[in-house]
């Protein structure tokens, strides 16, 4: 892999030990992946940061306080522990825009790359959304590579950074009408596609629906990029497959509803508050997950949600498994339902219409 003089000096330690470490990580990755050069990144999103044990990456991130030249955000923490405040402080010290809040939807908290911009994002939900909805270009970076990119401001040019690897390879005929449950369709595709770039034909989701679709499609890490078109007819000559939703049967009445995986946006909070305000409450508790920034923008509507259960800020439902075991959980995200089940919780996917019916008992859709 070709390095310019400044990159060679950083690799040789002339920029300090943190940059030397970061360049070593990136050059090794570039050589392994067949990249020909390092390219600048516009932002970084660090995945699964709270699950990391003390490591070289944390040592060097801490050493770089105040010197990052680009926005750095991170996935929400998955629980408590003495290391959490310190690690938040490390990321917040990197850059003035580093981490106002911690979210699996960083594009809602100021980290919003432009179309065509190369970024270093990790996380199944965030990287898929960046590639597919925002039009940025990222591989699904690991914790270590994202940390190195935050320090060096570079990443090896490879994979989904390159136009040839972003072209659709298979057309997906999506059901229309009442069967067009996009998150459920995304879950179905996630188990069928690997190494493909699907073109979803006949879809135009809202911004918030696209969040759940991106996570569902990439829930197994198989589909970090998908394309969409409004026209239902697939392009001529492209291989095509048909797919339908996969539904969970609510075999037992849920006693808990979990909303916000990926995190609820400001619009989500407002919409759910309006749906629930003034309606009779069921006996089913609701948990709402969002970022601190989105919560702070919605003090009035957030109060409505708190009256129906609990609002968690900068948290992840997957970090609360011990509290979820033994309960029957309905989720508006099929990917979250699958992850919770794999962790031993009884979790089922329900559409927004079904969720509203569970929370109010009147079956109204709220659309």
Features:
367 residues; Aconitase, domain 3; 3 domains; five-stranded parallel β-sheet; disordered C terminus
What does it look like?
The protein is an alpha/beta fold and 367 residues long. It has 3 domains: 5-163, 2-Layer Sandwich (Aconitase, domain 3), CATH 3.30.499.10; 167-242; 256-360, Aconitase, domain 3 (2-Layer Sandwich), CATH 3.30.499.10. It is built from 14 helices and 14 strands. The protein has helices at residues 5-11, 17-33, 56-63, 83-94, 124-134, 143-152, 182-190, 207-217, 266-276, 292-297, 299-308, 321-324, 334-342, 352-360, and strands spanning 38-40, 44-46, 72-74, 120-121, 154-156, 170-173, 198-201, 227-229, 240-242, 256-264, 285-290, 309-313, 328-331, 346-349. A 5-stranded parallel β-sheet has the order 12-11-10-13-14. Strand 13 (328-331), helix 13 (334-342) and strand 14 form a beta-alpha-beta unit. Helix 2 (17-33) crosses helix 3 (56-63), helix 3 (56-63) packs parallel to helix 6 and helix 9 (266-276) crosses helix 11 (299-308). The longest helix has 17 residues, at 17-33. It starts with a helix and ends in a 7-residue tail after the last helix. The model is unreliable at 363-367 (pLDDT under 50).
């Amino acid at each position: 892999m070709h390095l310019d003089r400044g990159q060679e000096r950083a690799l040789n330690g002339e920029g300090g030990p943190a940059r030397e470490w970061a360049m070593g990580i990136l050059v090794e990755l570039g050589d392994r992946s067949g990249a020909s050069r390092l390219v600048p990144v516009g932002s970084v999103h660090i995945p699964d940061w709270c699950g990391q044990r003390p490591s070289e990456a944390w040592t060097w991130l801490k050493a770089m306080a105040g010197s990052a030249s680009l926005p750095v955000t991170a996935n929400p923490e998955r629980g408590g522990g003495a290391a959490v405040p310190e690690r938040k402080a490390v990321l917040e010290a990197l850059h003035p825009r580093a981490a106002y809040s911690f979210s699996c939807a960083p594009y809602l908290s100021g980290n919003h790359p432009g179309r065509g911009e190369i970024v270093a994002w990790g996380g199944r939900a965030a990287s898929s959304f960046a590639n597919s909805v925002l039009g940025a270009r990222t591989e699904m970076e690991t914790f270590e590579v994202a940390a190195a990119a935050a320090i060096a401001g570079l990443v090896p040019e490879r994979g989904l950074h390159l136009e040839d690897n972003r072209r659709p390879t298979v057309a997906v005929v999506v059901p229309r009408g009442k069967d067009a449950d996009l998150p459920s369709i995304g879950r179905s595709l996630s188990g069928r596609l690997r190494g493909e770039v699907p073109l979803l034909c006949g879809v135009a989701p809202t911004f918030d629906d696209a969040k759940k679709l991106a996570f569902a499609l990439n829930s197994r890490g198989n589909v970090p990029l998908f394309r969409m078109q409004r026209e239902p007819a697939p392009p001529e000559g492209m291989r095509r497959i048909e797919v339908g939703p996969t539904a969970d049967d609510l075999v037992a009445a849920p006693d808990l509803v979990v909303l916000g995986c990926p995190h609820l946006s400001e619009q989500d909070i407002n919409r759910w508050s309006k749906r629930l305000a003034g309606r009779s409450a069921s006996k089913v508790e609701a948990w709402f997950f969002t970022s601190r920034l989105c919560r702070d923008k919605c003090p009035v509507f957030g109060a409505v949600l708190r009256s129906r259960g609990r609002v968690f800020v900068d948290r992840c439902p997957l970090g609360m498994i011990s509290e979820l075991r033994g309960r029957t959980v309905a989720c508006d995200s099929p990917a979250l339902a699958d992850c919770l089940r794999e962790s031993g919780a009884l979790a089922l996917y329900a559409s927004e219409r079904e969720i509203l019916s569970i929370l109010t008992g009147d079956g109204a859709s709220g659309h």
